[in-house]
Amino acid sequence: MKTQHTFTTLFFLKxxxxxxxxxxxxxxxxxxxxxxxxxAKRRLAISDWNQKQQKISGDSDHQNDVREKMRTLxxxxxxAYDEIRYAKQPLTAEAIKAKVEGTDEQQHSxxxxxxxxxxxxxxxxxxGTMKNYYTSERFLYEFLQAKRKKKNLILAQLDYKFxxxxxxxxxxxxxDKGQRPCTNNTVMKHMERLKKLIxxxxxxxWMSHDPFENFKRHMVKRDRESLDEQELQRFANAIVFAPGHxxxxxxxxxxxxxxxxxxxxxxxxxxxxxxxxxxxxxxxMTRKKTFSTTEQKFxxxxxxxxxxxxxxxxxxxxxxxxGVVFPFYSNxxxxxxxxxxxxxxxxxxxxxxxxxRHTFATTITLENGISIESVAHMLGHxxxxxxxxxxxxxxxxxxxxxxxxQSKMHPRxxxxx
Length: 417
What we know:
This is Site-specific recombinase XerD. GO terms for molecular function: DNA binding. Pfam families: Arm-DNA-bind_5, Phage_int_SAM_5, Phage_integrase. With 417 residues, the chain is mainly α. It is built from 16 helices and 8 strands. The protein has 3 domains: 100 residues, no CATH class; 94 residues; 164 residues, Intergrase catalytic core (hpI Integrase, Chain A, Orthogonal Bundle), CATH 1.10.443. The strands form 3 sheets. Strands 1-2-3 form a 3-stranded antiparallel beta sheet, with helices on one face. Strands 6-7-8 form a 3-stranded antiparallel beta sheet. Helix 5 runs antiparallel to helix 6, helix 8 packs across helix 12 and helix 14 packs across helix 15.
């Protein structure tokens, strides 16, 4: 019966690990273009090895020992190949290596990797970040069940076709009730998380190849939505009657005037405030996307609108009990209330709590002449490039700058009409 697999074994010396002219001997096992290296646990003089002919010159006891080891190892590799094919198991270079080494029962699977990440490394990530990883995990299992008719997969079987098929599955997937279809950028985010997971597997020596090696990530650049001055005023003046709606309205406005994200507003307390020698009140916090040591500290000079909101809530019973300034609701409830306030304000844009952070970056700061370097610092960004994504420049800022240039260059020219 003609095989459907390509399979080769070649021996070679790892010359980058040579010592005194001797280098370790390895077998390169290749199956269907994917390869892995298996140590022969022998060293050989580089001058004694003919790579093209796969032969050892000389007839010393050591050379004969290495020659015999090559014959034995080659036989073990071929036997492992035949056994895996006969058992109709997934045939990969890693599977052959595992069987030769006697560790085939310890091959790590995709489930092993996901469980390790969630239970161990997940302790270092924020709740919001882990929520995204759980969604990617759910989609991976859906993909396996729908397209591969499996509940799990050994990591050695993850190849370029797997990740491209997974990306296609996400794009064509029928969303659950209440969910939106995956856009290009959403798909790329899921692929980015899968790539990070595979990177962990490679570092742990659970995989020898990177299926993302030839994968090109393509994000569609879009302007981030924010409220302009009129919309911000309408949001602030929207009449709400439920106490919870009023709290959410004020939290959103506080974010618009400080740039804090939802999690930061929820943990904001009076210990984050300080006054400089000129009497100005500053807010100082640390952005916590992870529990690592790469946290980004930032300071914001508080505007009068923000100070008024702090005074309004700092003695609120719920705030005093919780040790924070603002009483708050869950992110889901908060965004639901924001939608109701947006409807009352007759704002047509799609608004979430994060829109307030974008509003601070554009309407409150950049459009009023604050430098992008200062805005990046207040937002807690390590790179100005990140700030440029948040901060779109609208016609007002362009018009103001061009009119100032026009006045400087042509002070005597007057507009007609």
